[in-house]
Every structure is written in C-alpha cells, then in structure tokens.
Write a structure and sequence with these properties.
Number of domains: 1
Low-confidence stretches: none
CATH class: Alpha Beta
Strand order of the largest sheet: 1-2-4-3
CATH architecture: 2-Layer Sandwich
Strand content: 15-25%
C-alpha cells in the first residue's frame, strides 16, 4: 500500500471514529467516512489484546497486503481498520475473504 493512501493525523482518525459509521464482524471493525477526494485514506490498527508488538505488526502487515490490490474499491473513503484479538484464530485466505466482504458492504452504502 502506497504512503499516499495512509491516514496519519490523530485528529483525522478521531473524525472517522466519531462519524459512527462502522461495519464489522468477529475479526475486524472498519470505521469509515465518505469524502470528496479521489485517493482513499487508510489507517490500520490492531487490538491491544493481541499482546505483543510482533503479533500486532504481523496482523497490520497482512491487512496491508490484502488491501493493496483492492485500494480502488475504497476511492473517496477514509477508513480505519481495526483487527480484533480473534484474528489470530483464522488463516490468511479467510482473513482476506472476511475483509473484502466488509469492504463490499461499505461500497454498497456508498452507491
């Protein structure tokens, strides 16, 4: 995922959270906010319940790699993806399927 797609400022991330638009399941929560620019802005976080920094960084890396080919699905959206602690129970293919299903829900609402 390219750096131009990253959502860095704490105030912008708070705005996305306080917007109160979410989709989620047992493994992920995605907070999102629609806006008028072309490039999507994405922030990725892992739950504190994943314990170690190694586990958190691994899950964030996996999410980045899952999203990379599908960034065009999030055009005009600010997104915060939070990986829950249960994420370590499933395989990478299942992680991909679940995350893409949540992104599709966001796209349905956008249209």
């Amino acid at each position: 995922m390219n750096r131009k797609y990253s959502l860095k400022k704490g105030s912008e991330i708070e705005a996305v959270i306080h917007n109160k638009k979410t989709v989620g399941d047992r493994y992920y929560v995605i907070y999102y906010l629609f806006y008028n620019e072309e490039a999507p802005q994405i922030a990725i976080s892992a739950s504190k319940k994943l314990k170690t920094a190694v586990a958190k960084n691994y899950e964030k890396k996996i999410i980045r790699e899952i999203i990379r080919p599908h960034v065009n699905l999030l055009i005009g959206t600010k997104v915060l993806i939070v990986a829950k602690a249960a994420i370590k129970e499933i395989e990478i293919t299942e992680k991909r399927n679940r995350l893409l299903k949540l992104i599709e829900k966001i796209n349905k609402e956008k249209q």
